[in-house]
Amino acid sequence: MSVAYRRIVLKLSGEVLAGSQGFGIHPDVFQGIAQQIRDAAAIGTQLGIVIGGGNIIRGISAASRGMDRATADYMGMMASVMNSVALQDALEKLELSTRVCSALEIKEVAEPYIRRRAERHLEKGRIVIFAGGTGNPYFTTDTAAALRAAEIHADAVLKATKVDGVYSADPEKDPSAKRYDRLGYDEVIERKLGFMDQAAVALCRENGLPIVVFDVTVPGNVRKVVAGEKIGTTVSG
């Protein structure tokens, strides 16, 4: 099978990983996503992955309740490392070669992120999990995904969510919300469509990186996206 994207960065939100329990690490969800990643890798796509930490702690939410924002964001980065190690375990149980590359130095569990080393891992067919966000507070893991995708010369950012694309409004609250098949970067920014933070969208625009927003809870969807099937919403120039 041919692939539409030679190299991608898959952005997984922590909330997706929590599954129905809504909080923490859900082993069955990790196993299911690991199987989807295996199937996508099997058709020849090189995969980098960025994981949020929202199933453990969200920096913005914690800051809104009185915690220092930088402290809360660092805690979120450490939560991202925990999720990354959990996903690595699930992938290696499927006999996939992986590396966790962390923007925070935690050498006992992850390599430090070095761009050229990460690219070499991808070239060797390893799945690279980019942990710890950007390593800086005040930046989301969405921005980390856009940044890493630009650095490793990825062909697209795949935004894996619990919704089947980008809507004009929250489809759970507004039954008349319209789902978009395609959007331009500027439309997303001007309409303030909140599926991804605006800094990440702007970074993708500046580097010509398409964003594909899709429902990762449907088995097989990661493989379908990298194979070029038209699912979800594509944001591009």
Number of helices: 9
What's the number of extended β-strand segments?
A: 11
Shape: globular
Q: CATH topology, anyone?
A: Carbamate kinase
CATH-assigned homologous superfamily: Acetylglutamate kinase-like
Provide tags for this entry.
alpha/beta; Carbamate kinase; 19% strand; 39% helix; 9-stranded mixed sheet; 9 helices; 237 residues; two-stranded antiparallel sheet
Structure description:
This protein has 237 residues and is an alpha/beta fold. The protein has a single domain, classed as Carbamate kinase (3-Layer(aba) Sandwich). The protein has 9 helices and 11 strands. The strands form 2 sheets. It has a 9-stranded mixed beta sheet with strand order 4-3-5-2-1-6-10-11-9, with helices on both faces. The chain has a two-stranded antiparallel sheet with strand order 7-8. The longest helix has 24 residues, at 69-92. The radius of gyration is 17 Å and the shape is globular. The mean pLDDT is 92.
